[in-house]
Design goal:
By secondary structure, this protein is mainly α. 61% of the residues lie in helices and 2% in strands.
């Protein structure tokens, strides 16, 4: 990076430092919006915990099988138990709660996953602040935007983390959030490693891999190599030692009446053979298109849209990935004060599940949201910020600061 550009960037970071890390009497200041979101998370945790951990037994069973505590596991885990559609990283993390009594471990896991959701809100806010350096970003407006978007995100996060206790989905979304932050900070290796951990936690996270294309060309290959290497290291031992593991990819679930698949004329009683590949392919294709259109902050939302529109099931915890996508888009990818995409997602997907009695109409609403949000983030016209500058995610390689370029990604101005 030229010396002049480096000095400009360092000056911007120094000017922003008091806002991001203000201290009083040697103690960090607790952000008001973070405090409110903490209370909001606690309220939803208490509501969901009474009937929580619906699926935690899958994690407990899987980690016992993986570590040989019960027969039929080890590297034969997926060959013998294709119903465990959970990545090995999910089982490894679940093992951390195994030493505790079952009820205690379950509650600790729920609290841990809830805390990750709150931390993700903090990470997204910091990511947006760094992405907005040099664009005239109003930090108070950003805090308000994260607060309002986070208020929509938390109910869906509690669905996945407490009510269903899907640690694998939680980890996939958490690692993806870290990858987005690493992308903005210009750490290409971290982006590759974190996206690999997401896929190693839950296979459908492959839809987030187009984030690699948002990296500068010189470091993209290295990040991709880390991703491929770590995904292979996690999954290949199962496939190479037990070829029956391939049957796990064909595991089917019922095609529920509220699935959007029904609106495509797919009335098979179970998952069609082409459905999983189509989900992943559509998510990747939309993500690639988003990056090519300089809208990489839409990648997570588009992958989640592809999942919910083509999945035969309609569990509410699926919506957590959608709300993370809208959170990133509303907070990092645009600058309007009201994050209406997040609230539209919450009302459309969660509200319809609670209030709309017709399963067919629920499927139509799910289809309409997925299609509408995808078209919006991909094609809605955007204006550059008032100072005419845009900030791209990390340029120049690991740990190097980003330069401000008029040809870089633009932000919506509101």
């Amino acid at each position: 990076m030229p010396e002049k550009g480096r000095n400009v960037r360092n000056g911007e970071r120094a000017a922003a430092a008091p806002r991001r890390g203000a201290r009083i009497g040697g103690r960090p200041v607790v952000r008001w919006h973070t405090a409110l979101l903490t209370v909001w998370t606690a309220v939803w945790f208490l509501v969901a915990e009474r009937h929580g951990a619906v699926s935690w037994h899958y994690l407990r069973t899987g980690e016992e099988l993986l570590f040989g505590q019960v027969p039929g596991g080890g590297l034969a885990l997926y060959a013998h138990h294709p119903e465990l559609q959970i990545g090995p990283v999910g089982f490894v993390v679940a093992a951390l709660f195994e030493p505790f009594p079952a009820a205690v471990g379950e509650n600790l896991a729920e609290a841990f996953m809830s805390g990750l959701g709150l931390y993700m809100l903090v990470l997204v806010g910091r990511t947006a602040a760094e992405q907005g350096l040099g664009t005239g970003l109003n930090h108070r407006r950003l805090q308000q935007r994260v607060l309002v978007a986070g208020a929509a995100f938390i109910p869906m996060w509690v669905e996945v983390s407490v009510r269903f206790a899907h640690l694998d989905d939680v980890l996939a979304l958490f690692f993806t959030t870290l990858a987005v932050r690493a992308l903005v900070r210009g750490n290409a290796t971290a982006v590759g490693v974190l996206l690999a951990l997401a896929v190693d936690s839950k296979p459908w996270a492959v839809g987030f891999l187009p984030l690699l294309l948002a990296l500068p060309r010189p470091v993209r290959l290295r990040a991709g190599a880390w991703t491929v290497g770590l995904v292979a290291a996690a999954w290949l031992p199962f496939y190479l030692t037990h070829l029956d593991t391939f049957h796990a990819a064909r595991f089917t679930i019922p095609n529920q009446p509220a699935s959007a698949l029904r609106w495509f004329g797919v009335n098979d009683p179970a998952t069609p053979w082409w459905d999983r590949p189509a989900q992943m392919s559509l998510g990747i294709a939309l993500g690639v298109l988003a990056v090519r259109r300089n809208r990489w902050t839409a990648v997570v939302l588009l992958a989640a849209d592809a999942r919910i529109v083509l999945d035969p099931s309609v569990y509410t915890y699926y919506n957590a990935s959608v709300l993370l996508g809208t959170l990133i888009w509303d907070s990092v990818g645009r600058r309007w004060l009201v994050p209406w995409v997040s609230w539209t997602a919450l009302i459309s997907l969660y509200g319809s599940a609670l209030l709309v009695p017709s399963a067919s109409v629920q499927g139509l609403i799910r289809l309409a949201f997925a299609a509408g949000s995808a078209l919006y983030v991909l094609f809605w016209p955007r204006r550059p910020p008032r100072n005419g500058l845009g900030a791209s995610p990390g340029a120049g390689g690991d740990g190097q600061a980003r330069s401000v370029s008029s040809s870089a990604y633009t932000w919506e101005s509101g």
